[in-house]
Amino acid sequence: MSERLADYDRLKMEELNYNSYLKVPELTSLQHLRSEPKHHDEMFFIVIHQSFELWFKEALHEVGLMASFLANDDVARSLKVLKRVQAIITCLTQQIQLLGTLTPDEFAGFREALGTGSGFQSVQFREMEFACGQRDPWFFQFFEARPDEKARLQARFESPSVYDCFLQAMARAGYQVPKEVLERKLTETHQMNDELVEVFRELYQDPKTDYHWVLACEALLDLDTMWSNFRSAHILMVSRTIGGKKGTGGSSGVPFLESRLPLRFFPELWEVRNSDWQK
Ligand code: HEM
User: Fold this and answer.
1) Given ligand 1 and candidates 118, 229, 237, which is best to mutate, with the most ligand atoms within 8 Å of its CB?
2) DSSP letters along the chain, please?
3) Ligand 1 atom having least distance to the Cα of 125
4) What number does the ligand 1 atom closest to the CA of 48 have?
5) Per-residue pLDDT, 108
């Protein structure tokens, strides 16, 4: 007990406490309203976006761990990490609902202050997309003026995606993952491969003792579903906030966002649903 007290005294001396450890003063001084006169709801808008970015950071941190577990053929632990990523995305999808308390006139009251600021410029969102395998070089244009962010994005663009790591691990476990899939050009979005659909069909149909691979496939599908739910929630929220107006990033707004709704990270896991299953 006295040792613990000594510890406490030492930490007190070093002034390690809740606020200093978490850098609360720094964190809560990062909300700079640009509207003039200051619009009450701009604070709300900034806090929501900043908290999204913190969660994106954490999700990317976990995706890195997941990839390293897969590289070591530790599928079970990669699933545990994936579960946390899914929990974060679910939380973010719910968090979008907060913006339902922002009426269109309230948003219009400070929208001008955003200038051309847009979700297009969220490097961490794009990193998540690239890490999951969606790689559209069109989005680099939003980072031309910010070399550090562009370099981060470029690194993701050239690295294996979560799906690549997963399929490599499957191949090492003896599944006949097609060579062209394993050796694909990383800087392009993964394209649907019929032979890979067949590999999944056989796995689902007769997993023998390998049922953990089926669970892993289902977990990836959950991730794809959750990402899609996030996109849908964002679109609905945008519709109720700005209707059919253009986005601050220069896109057509809702029609542009809807055009991205059909994107799927793991197309073969969707396609395999069309199989004729033997009874
Ligand atoms: C009132 C709130 C919001 C409105 C009106 C809104 C509107 C839009 C619009 C119109 C776009 C299309 C790009 C453009 O032209 O700017 C967009 C993209 C985007 N927004 Fe939002 N947004 C809002 C809140 C959020 C929040 C809270 C996030 C969370 C980070 C977010 C993340 C994104 C992302 C990542 C994109 C790019 C989507 C993609 O490329 O598929 N937005 N947003």
Assistant:
1) 118
2) -HHHHHHHHHHHHTT-SHHHHHTHHHHTT------SSPPHHHHHHHHHHHHHHHHHHHHHHHHHHHHHHHHTT-HHHHHHHHHHHHHHHHHHHHHHGGGGGS-HHHHHTTGGGGTT--GGG-HHHHHHHHHHT---GGGGGGGTT-HHHHHHHHHHHHSPPHHHHHHHHHHHTT----HHHHT--TTSPPPP-HHHHHHHHHHHH--TT-HHHHHHHHHHHHHHHHHHHHHHHHHHHHHHHHTTPPPTTSS-SHHHHHHTTT--S-HHHHHGGGS----
3) 35
4) 27
5) 97
